[in-house]
């Protein structure tokens, strides 16, 4: 029998190296119990959570929990079917209507995850005769969606509209459609896309533009609609994809647009058609979170104050923190073993962040990916900064 796992020999060797340096599996951390939005029980210790996507703290929303409980009692725990069969309830339609209203767009499709929203939208929008232009630092769901699409893929330099423009110019006579895909805030680094410039380039070249606002929805813009709202170019962004699993605190994804053709995706997008729809209690909780997000704009103000606090604090410690101020703050370290040691010591000091190692990181740099929430208190951020300072000193950084 051929060893079916032989292709993973390199991966196994890398994981063994991690195991030799790390007293615990950094990719198998168990939150024994979330105690609040900002504190979780890890290894029996109360630990500050600085590595979630729970930007507004809504995973612990009382209104969302109440809505979920009431709905589960009325409608059961799951739909047991896909959106095109028995899996569309009135609640799914209601959420689509509400999201379309929030984004001031005509159409909205709800998917079972944000991953599937990218997979489903990109694979259905781009056909084999079309060209996809992807930012080099795109999320895995964008790359996977492009593979499922069979379209030609051209990567451009991260956050570089000039590079995109040059690459579009080279294929100006291509008869198929051209779809540019960017993210509002990049999940690993916190970099914000220059959306206005990207919108100008797409107009100049007659291309379409899809923005994944997964990390920027609820975070950027006067109403929290993301980078397109912040840079006042929503009319030039043809499709917005996003997720409920970050600022809304639940799970699921969406694609909104003014183009009526998007409705056809319901009839041809495999990640939309061939998977079970979201359970009703999740939809109810998401609707409640959306209401709370819209009723409490001050959450966004606090979130950005906290983002400044963490970002400036890390810079003041002399660490290589992200240049952009956003709720995602990456600390770049020089070597993988140093990153692993740093991450372990932070956890032992009661601070959880995400450890991101090459090849899953931009430019193959090891990162400590930190994120803040509106729910963090200034004292909690100071405690995290103290831990960073202490560990940096211990490791001689
Ligand atoms: N897009 C981006 C940019 C993301 O970072 C993520 C999740 N990390 C997703 C899409 C997928 O969202 P979900 O986890 O809700 O499936």
Automatic annotation (TrEMBL):
Keyword terms of this UniProt record: Aminotransferase, Pyridoxal phosphate, Transferase
Cofactors required: pyridoxal 5'-phosphate
Pfam families per UniProt: Aminotran_1_2
All residue ranges annotated as the Aminotransferase class I/classII large domain in the record: 47-388
Keyword Transferase: yes
Presence of the UniProt keyword Transferase in the record: yes
InterPro entries on file: Aminotrans_II_pyridoxalP_BS (IPR001917), Aminotransferase_I/II_large (IPR004839), AON_synthase_class-II (IPR050087), PyrdxlP-dep_Trfase (IPR015424), PyrdxlP-dep_Trfase_major (IPR015421), PyrdxlP-dep_Trfase_small (IPR015422)
Highest taxon listed in the record's lineage: Bacteria
Any one GO molecular-function label of the UniProt entry: pyridoxal phosphate binding
Family the UniProt entry places it in: Belongs to the class-II pyridoxal-phosphate-dependent aminotransferase family.
Protein name stated in the entry: Aminotransferase class I/II-fold pyridoxal phosphate-dependent enzyme
